[in-house]
Amino acid sequence: MIGFGKPLKIALGLIVIAGLIVIPMNFNRYGLFILSQWAVMSIAAMGLNLTLGYAGQVSLAQGAFVGIGAYAAAIMTTHGWPLPAAIVVAIVLGFAVGWVLGYPALRVQHHYLAFVTLAFSTLAFLVFRNESWLTGGIYGISNIPRPHVFGIATNKPLPFYYVCLGSLAIVSVAVWWLIRSPWGRAFMALRENPLRAQSLGIDTRRYTLMAFAIGSALGGVAGALYAPLTQYIDPVPFNLSLSLDLLMMVIVGGAGFYFGPFLGAMIAVLLPEWLRFTEGYYLMLYAIAVMGLLIWSPTGILGILDRYLAERRTKAASALRAVAKSRLETAQ
Amino acid sequence: MSNLFDLLVAGLATGAIYALVAVGFTLLWQTSQTINFAQGEFVMLPAFLMLAAMHAGAPFWLAIILGILLSMILLGLGFKMLLVDPMMRHGVLPLAIATMALAIGLKEAVKQFFSAEASPFPSIVPTGDISILGHAISLQSIGVLVVAILAVFGLTALLNRTSLGHQMQAAAQNPTVARIIGVPVERMILLTFLINAFLVALASLLITPIYLAKFSSGEVLGQAAFIAAIVGGFNQVRGAIAGGLLIGVLDNLAASYVSTQYRAAVPLIFLIVVILFRPQGLLGRAEERTV
């Protein structure tokens, strides 16, 4: 495990990616929709993981940013603008609003921050619902077109799934790069100990705002993909429960782990579908599963894996130590 | 002017309910750092327990007693032993998330095992109006206000006047020192969970006749109670009471003086303003930051 860890990981990654490309080819419409939804939610959860998992700022507003992105995309594309332009607008809007929402985080922490963001989330919902001149109010916006990518129409579920998957890939690479950059380290320093981070010369103010802004911008991207995915949006999917769901995805997957959001979104999107055969009981079972998991491992699924690997490493290290010790003894 | 008076009374009545729910919320926070996102669902459930008892043939008064007892066992003891105890050492956030899952579970369980429809619920206060200073005021509003005020006074008397209450406060403020001077901290924490369960059952009994028993009725109430607790002071029982009354009145005034569409926004904006300028709440103590 220690010697060939990296190639194994790369091989595993390639297999998963190939699987995500090939296997859905013979999925039905509904299966593709669910899988596309997983990709979109993974993007939003990745953004929240940056804010919460890496920078340690609790946000209950990620769903509102998905909503902002979705409305930006819906309004622009139904007025004839191309989707990429809408995505850019969603990113800029998410970044700007997220930056502003970061200001309370400079003053208050933890549960207070959770409630400021919660309030923002509900306010955004009210705006989506009440400003019908812009958002269509409770009737929402329908006939949201799907884009042409390199001249190929993506109206069918499979091509649009690839659009979602491709976007997920691009975002994944960007986030991977970000958390390995000095920025990512500054975020983590912020999470571990804000005062120490400040004393090390990290501009905590700027990085707190950045953590919110970048995380929110990714929420906007997810929204801009969500609108053409469902082709119809109204305020309901973007209420507080989406923010809570996204928070749950990040924690259940493993906050602060790179692959946490992928797993968390998989559980939140797919597990209820798999449990659907239990009919009315599925959300109940889902809730029990989440509680059970958190009691067992509060750091989420990847926390279990992490613990297991750490144990193996200590075991391997003590085995090596024992060998070294016995060799020393025989040498003497 | 008469309108304003009516609005104030109605606001105080709703506010008293918020206060009941918010007080339990601050009690749990103080003794065990539990943020209970299912607090609204905790108010929703006892009404259904009582309804179930009535469907089984129990008279109303017996159903009330059974409902309160069951609520204390399930939402007090059960909640503490099955969810809070195993998760307490893991910090605030995972537990908060677990209570969100609990909220989903409770809602779905009621929907599945009882009914997705709203059910009527008998009132402990007679319906009808009473005339005070020339204003027709519903007896229900007054009943709710009186019962809630009595409960809150009873609780503050328990906390401030009795030795048990002093032990509870000691356990909440500094568990380590409390333990050294011989306070059974664990038992005090359990007591706060039982008191919370009692308060939510009482709130359920008071509010359900007005708004009907529905599986989703906890969402709005839970959020209002959280806002009340934070506005008043997250770590103060009297703060939660003041916050509850304030939010209740504000909510009712906003409904008629601000646009009905944005009525829900008024308490939220108020919340944001309070948090930004006085994060510890209007009556709260500032909590020290841990380095």
From TrEMBL, chain A:
CDD domains: TM_PBP1_LivM_like
Coiled-coil region(s): none
Principal location listed in the UniProt entry: membrane
Source organism phylogeny: Bacteria, Pseudomonadati, Pseudomonadota, Alphaproteobacteria, Hyphomicrobiales
Keyword Chloroplast part of the UniProt annotation: no
Transmembrane segments: 7-27, 33-52, 83-103, 110-128, 160-179, 207-226, 246-271, 283-305
UniProt entry keywords in alphabetical sequence: Cell membrane, Membrane, Transmembrane, Transmembrane helix
Identification of the protein by name: Branched-chain amino acid ABC transporter permease
Its membrane topology: Multi-pass membrane protein
GO cellular component terms listed in the entry, alphabetical order: plasma membrane
Recorded GO MF terms: branched-chain amino acid transmembrane transporter activity
InterPro entries on file: ABC_transp_permease, LivM-like
Compartments, record wording: Cell membrane
From TrEMBL, chain B:
InterPro entries associated with the record: ABC_transp_permease, BCAA_transport_permease
Source organism, top-level taxon: Bacteria
One term under GO cellular component: plasma membrane
Single biological process term from Gene Ontology: amino acid transport
GO MF annotation, one: transmembrane transporter activity
UniProt entry keywords in alphabetical sequence: Amino-acid transport, Cell membrane, Membrane, Transmembrane, Transmembrane helix, Transport
UniProt KW Transmembrane keyword: yes
Transmembrane segments: 6-28, 60-79, 91-110, 130-159, 189-212, 224-250, 262-281
Membrane topology term: Multi-pass membrane protein
Location(s), subcellular: Cell membrane
Family membership noted in the UniProt record: Belongs to the binding-protein-dependent transport system permease family. LivHM subfamily.
Name of the molecule in the record: Branched-chain amino acid ABC transporter permease
Species this protein is from: Bradyrhizobium amphicarpaeae
